[in-house]
Fold this protein.
Amino acid sequence: MKLSQYNNDFSYVDESQQWFEEILSRYLDEARSRALSLVAEGVVADTGCIETPTLDARKVRFRGRQLYAYRFIFCILTEMRAGYDDVVRHRCNNRRCINPDHLEIGSRGENLQDEREFSANGVDYTLL
Ligand SMILES: [Zn+2]
């Protein structure tokens, strides 16, 4: 199997989880300072969102992998070994936002549901 393998306890670990496992165990300090400097470069909006100065969600490259900055920042700061099915969700529905307080982990199904609810109701910032 190329993209996945089984742990010693036979639980399934995908390649995304393997990457986070390696980063969190070997390069945590470096990853943390990268994540914090990305947040520091963001622009704070009235909503409390910290937005990247990009048109869409910013991507970052770190240790051989390119991923969304919000995913990198959330997973590194919470030391989350996110797999392919674990999506980092924007509670504020602003994809350019990298405020860790506006992010949470969920499944792909929950993410789709967020998008439907946003279309219907918008965002209640008092809940963030
Ligand atoms: Zn936000």
About this structure: The two ends are 41 Å apart (CA to CA). The first strand starts at residue 4 and ends at 6. The chain has a mean pLDDT of 88. Strands lie at 4-6, 12-14, 43-44, 50-51, 59-62, 65-68, 86-90, 103-107.
